Amino acid sequence: MTREVITVTEDTDDEQVRHLPVERRIRRVSVLAGQRLASIVSRSDVIAPLTTEWACQVCGQTARGPHPPPRCPTCNAGQDRFAQQEPPPGS
């Protein structure tokens, strides 16, 4: 158990919440609504969008992020031409 629990409120900026697990070296951040627990943000919730990889089915160009890019920077194919790649084992 942790003596010093780090919490944020529902109004806390998403960017601030994303940095907490890295900066404070913690695994989970409790999100409070008033005095009640509203949710928990885990380190994997923060890292998952950074490791999601999309590949253009036309030219093979890859991009990382929670969503495919609107256009391929190499061949200008549309967002619908990107497919999510399987994550490597152990990730």
Give structural notes.
The protein has 91 residues and is an alpha+beta fold. It is 21% helix and 29% strand. The protein has helices at 14-23, 43-51, and strands at residues 7-9, 28-33, 36-42, 53-56, 62-64, 82-84. It starts with 6 loop residues before the first strand and ends in a 7-residue tail after the last strand. 8% of the residues are buried.
Describe the structure in brief:
This protein is α+β, with helices and mostly antiparallel strands and 91 residues long.
Oligomer: single chain
Order of helices and strands: EHEEHEEE
Helical amount? 10-25%
User: Mean pLDDT, rounded to whole units?
Assistant: 87
Shape: elongated
Q: Low-confidence parts, pLDDT < 50 over ≥5 residues?
A: none
- Quick one: biggest sheet? 3 strands, mixed
**Span between N and C termini?**
26 Å
> So how many helices?
2
Widest beta sheet: strand line-up: 1-2-3
Beta-strand proportion:
25-35%
Classification by helices and strands: alpha+beta
Overall strand count: 6
Notable traits:
alpha+beta, 3-stranded antiparallel sheet, 21% helix, elongated, 2 helices, 91 residues
Write the layout of secondary structure elements.
Elements: E1 7-9, H1 14-23, E2 28-33, E3 36-42, H2 43-51, E4 53-56, E5 62-64, E6 82-84
Parallel strand pairs: 1-2
Antiparallel strand pairs: 2-3, 4-5, 4-6
